[in-house]
Each structure stands twice: as C-alpha cells, then as structure tokens.
Design goal:
Structural class: alpha+beta
Shape: rod-shaped
Helix content: 40-55%
Radius of gyration: 43 Å
Number of strands: 5
Order of helices and strands: EEEHHEEHHH
Strand order of the largest sheet: 1-2-3
Length: 196
C-alpha cells in the first residue's frame, strides 16, 4: 500500500527500533520517491505538552470549583446547623438560647427572625403567667396529651398541692395519683383509681 500511493504518511519502526512517522512523496518527472522520518516522541512532543498543560489546567479549575463549592456550602451549612441546634435547645427547655445571626445574608435573616419569634413567644408566655397568677381562681392548663403546660399558685394553695408536684410535663395522671395516695378518692389501690 505504501508504494501504491504518490504521497502520504506512514508510521513504522526505524532501523534503530524507534517508532517514527515517515512522510513520503514522489518527485514528478524523476520518478524518485523522497522519504523523511522523525521519531514519534519528537513529532508529538508539543501536542503532548499542550495536552498535559490542558489536563493540569482542567484539574486546577476542578479543584478551585470544588473548593469554592465547599466554602459556600460551609458558609450556609454551619449557620443552618447552629439554627437547628438552637431550635433543639429551645425545645429542650433552654429559654435563653438564641441562634447566631451570622452566615449568608439569607441565613442570617432567618436567624434574626427566629430570635424575634422566640422573644415574642417568651413575652406572650410571661403575659399568660402574669395573667394566671393574678386570677382569683385556681387554674391549670394541659395539652392534648394531658401534660401540664401552665398553672397558678392559687391552684396549689386551694388544693393543698406541693410546688414540687407541678412542673412542665407533669401529667394529669401524676396529679390524680397524688390525690389517690393521700386518700382523696377513698380507700383502694391508687394505681387502679388513676386508671379509672
């Protein structure tokens, strides 16, 4: 095939066993064939160098993008994690817990509003406690699970309950058990009286 073409390129090993690229052409009118060869490494050196540079540049850009993504993620994820931790602390009874108002503007804005909500809720709870304490009647408020959420001292005094009996989370069954154990429901097993 090499000899049937007038000109072209071919890849072959040289007499020194070094892979070479040969270019050939036929000289018009003379019938001569001119062949020139160059080692493959030399022929592709600049291309390989550009390829290596492009790969290195691509990796650098990829690392920069990944680093920027990680940094942006941290600036958002850390404040959101702190906001979640504050919410858990408040739910666990830490009334003074507040979310750090830091991070990306949107996240800081959420933290600011969250803290305002906590303060507003605490003011409302204090107003409710003040109202309950100033009532002439004994009052207790329970949630849907019959757990005490609010009460006043008048209730404790009227029913001769110790202050240790009432705290957030006291159940209606705890109050009935206390009454049953001091005989308010007559003779019998206090636990059975609570179940009734």
């Amino acid at each position: 095939e090499f000899w049937s073409q007038r000109e072209g390129f071919v890849r072959a090993g040289g007499v020194d066993a070094v892979p070479r690229i040969y270019g050939f052409a036929t000289v018009e009118g003379a019938g001569w064939r001119v062949v020139a060869g160059i080692p493959e490494d030399s022929a592709f050196a600049s291309h390989r160098q550009r390829l290596a540079g492009s790969v290195a540049l691509g990796l650098l850009v990829l690392l920069l993008v990944a680093g920027a993504g990680w940094g942006i993620g941290r600036t958002i994820a850390a404040p959101i994690g702190e906001l979640a931790a504050t919410a858990r602390a408040v739910a666990g009874g830490e009334r003074t817990a507040r979310a750090p108002e830091s991070g990306a503007a949107e996240v800081a804005g959420v933290a600011i509003e969250f803290n305002r909500m906590l303060e507003s809720t605490q003011r409302a709870e204090q107003a409710l406690r003040d109202t309950l304490e100033n009532m002439a009647q004994g009052i207790t408020l329970v949630d849907r699970d019959l757990r005490v959420v609010a009460w006043n001292r008048r209730l404790l005094k009227m029913l001769d309950f110790p202050e240790s009996l009432y705290h957030e989370g006291t159940t209606f069954a705890d109050v009935m058990r206390f009454n049953a154990m001091r005989g308010e429901y007559g003779p019998g097993d206090p636990e059975e009286q609570v179940r009734e």
